[in-house]
């Protein structure tokens, strides 16, 4: 009786039948998403720690900010996307704003807070949703494919199967314990996926982690696996607004805005396309609410003491496992909540385990490439530029930029300019000026 009651409540809140899913699938998808993005709990404190921030406090701030944003995504937007402080954005925070520009981390937090407030207003007036809806369907599909290649590359680099070298990229050491764990995990996931086993990626991650423990790649934590979360006091509400109206603050806020805006839009576009969540007009229902989630997460996260919160591309792993509603995101959020007490356990998941999952998701996301009209060069060329620039430039935002510029240019110069939304022309011009202005400075 209690089980039926819980299922009924879940149905009422998340409309599971309408989305053709069920409670078990959603929970498994949420756990899988958490497993593939859990690295942020270790990486974010390390990166922001390089800026002089207290690592333990950053760990706690990361989790609380993520939970707040995820709850909004789950209960307000009813979408299966998880959020956390974004990679790339945290690196910009530390290595550009603090270490290169010589600004304090308090200054950087103030910039993140201002960015969040601006995003709240942009979301309230539907500016971000309008941008999302203006992206042509062929580019939406290309974004999905490009993200697939991008996260597959991230997985290969994290596994050390592919490494950076003097030429660019090359094979790493394939005869190592780490490579063995990666390939075993990848094989398990591939076989279970072929056999249509639910939770294939999660099972692969768990088995890979067990193997890592036995081979010595991972070690059980010392001093117990449960601990109280570190205090926020060293970093919370430490924002420095003394340079709020300076040119440097403007440039930093603009950089945060640009990367976050198009990373989030790109992630939502790509993952939603893969999940077939877009309507007949190529638009994502509740896109505005989804964008509101990362706006609030960023604003409150800055107050707590962490960098910009954004929608994680690793949400694609949960979608690949069948996640379709906010219950997937809620399950991920619950895992974040538990992790605040079990941080020592998070550290035992080897990078190779989650890397294999990312490579598998890359495969899942590129299959939509068949929906691109390669018979029309004005559609295929911009799509191709979008796809290749994401992994090669190592940025979702740059892939969108090149896609927008090439789409507007090719359409206009071939006499098909009327097919392009005015907003796409505006965005293409903004992107183009962004690349050209440094030439005149």
UniProtKB/TrEMBL annotation:
Residue intervals passing through the bilayer: 27-44, 56-76, 83-101, 107-127, 139-162, 174-192, 199-217, 249-271, 291-313, 325-346, 353-375, 381-408, 420-437
Listed GO CC annotations: plasma membrane
InterPro entries: Azg-like, Azg-like_bact_archaea, NCS2
Name used for this protein in its record: Putative permease
Membrane association type: Multi-pass membrane protein
Domain of life the protein comes from: Bacteria
Origin species: Anaerococcus vaginalis ATCC 51170
Record keywords, A-Z: Cell membrane, Membrane, Transmembrane, Transmembrane helix, Transport
Recorded family membership: Belongs to the nucleobase:cation symporter-2 (NCS2) (TC 2.A.40) family. Azg-like subfamily.
Subcellular location, record wording: Cell membrane
GO terms for MF: purine nucleobase transmembrane transporter activity
């Amino acid at each position: 009786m209690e089980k039926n009651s819980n299922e009924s409540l879940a149905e009422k809140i998340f409309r599971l039948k309408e989305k053709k899913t069920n409670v078990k699938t959603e929970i498994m998808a949420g756990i899988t998403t958490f497993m593939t993005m859990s690295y942020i709990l270790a990486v974010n404190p390390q990166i922001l720690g390089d800026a002089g921030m207290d690592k333990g406090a950053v760990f706690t701030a990361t989790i609380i900010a993520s939970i707040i944003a995820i709850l909004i995504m789950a209960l307000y937007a009813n979408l299966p996307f998880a959020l956390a402080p974004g990679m790339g954005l945290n690196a910009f925070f530390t290595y550009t704003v603090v270490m290169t520009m010589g600004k304090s981390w308090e200054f950087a937090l103030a910039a993140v807070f201002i960015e969040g407030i601006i995003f709240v207003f942009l979301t309230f007036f539907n500016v971000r949703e309008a941008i999302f809806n203006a992206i042509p369907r062929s580019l939406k599909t290309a974004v999905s494919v490009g993200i697939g290649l991008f996260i597959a590359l991230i997985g290969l680099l994290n596994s050390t199967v592919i490494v950076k070298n003097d030429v660019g990229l090359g094979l790493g050491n394939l005869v190592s314990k780490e490579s063995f764990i990666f390939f075993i995990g990848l094989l398990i996931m591939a076989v279970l996926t072929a056999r249509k086993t639910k939770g294939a990626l999660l099972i692969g991650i768990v088995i890979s982690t067990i193997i890592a423990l036995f081979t010595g790649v991972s070690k059980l934590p010392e001093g117990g696996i449960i601990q109280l979360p570190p205090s926020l006091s060293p970093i919370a509400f430490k924002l420095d607004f003394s340079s709020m109206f300076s040119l440097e603050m403007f440039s930093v806020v603009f950089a945060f805005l640009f990367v976050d805006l198009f990373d989030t839009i790109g992630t939502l576009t790509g993952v939603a396309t893969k999940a077939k969540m877009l309507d007949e007009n190529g638009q994502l229902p509740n896109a505005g609410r989804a964008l509101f989630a990362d706006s609030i997460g960023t604003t409150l996260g800055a107050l707590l003491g962490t960098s910009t919160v954004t929608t994680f591309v690793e949400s694609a792993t949960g979608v690949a496992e069948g996640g379709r509603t906010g219950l997937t995101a809620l399950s991920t959020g619950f895992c974040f909540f538990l992790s605040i007490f079990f941080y020592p356990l998070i550290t035992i998941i080897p990078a190779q385990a989650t890397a294999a999952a990312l490579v598998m998701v890359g495969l899942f996301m590129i299959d939509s490439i068949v929906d691109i009209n390669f018979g029309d060069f004005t559609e295929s060329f911009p799509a191709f530029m979008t796809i290749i620039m994401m992994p090669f430039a190592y940025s979702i935002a740059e892939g969108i930029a090149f896609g927008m510029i090439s789409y507007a240019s090719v359409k206009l110069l071939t006499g098909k300019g009327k097919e392009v939304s005015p907003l796409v022309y505006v965005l293409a011009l903004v992107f183009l000026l962004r690349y050209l202005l440094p030439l005149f400075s």
